[in-house]
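Model it.
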Amino acid sequence: MKFRKFQEMNDNEGETWAFWLQVDGNEEALEKLQEMLLEYEPDPEYYHLTDIVIDESEVDTLVKYGNFDSGYWDVHHKVTGKLDLKKVRLPKWSEDGDTCLDDHDTIYKGQIKDHFKKDKK
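Modeled.
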């Protein structure tokens, strides 16, 4: 299985976290997420879906050994399941980027994980 790096830069905690999102079965949804993030204002780097794609074994290694001295939260997170974008919302900002018009953000502080549904077996 392949995973793509979603990065959240959290100013409140002063940390950056990597959420390794399952690619297999989510190709179309990840491209739609990328479009949403590229339109996000005022700072499109706050959330960033990178082009980095790695194998599951590499993600497992990062999660296992890459979290030492991590601070508020672990740096690396493995996210599996089917991505459902229906409830993903990003804050709305004024055109000048100075005023938050709607602070409804459903991916803040790792909530991106909540939009992945596990397969029921």
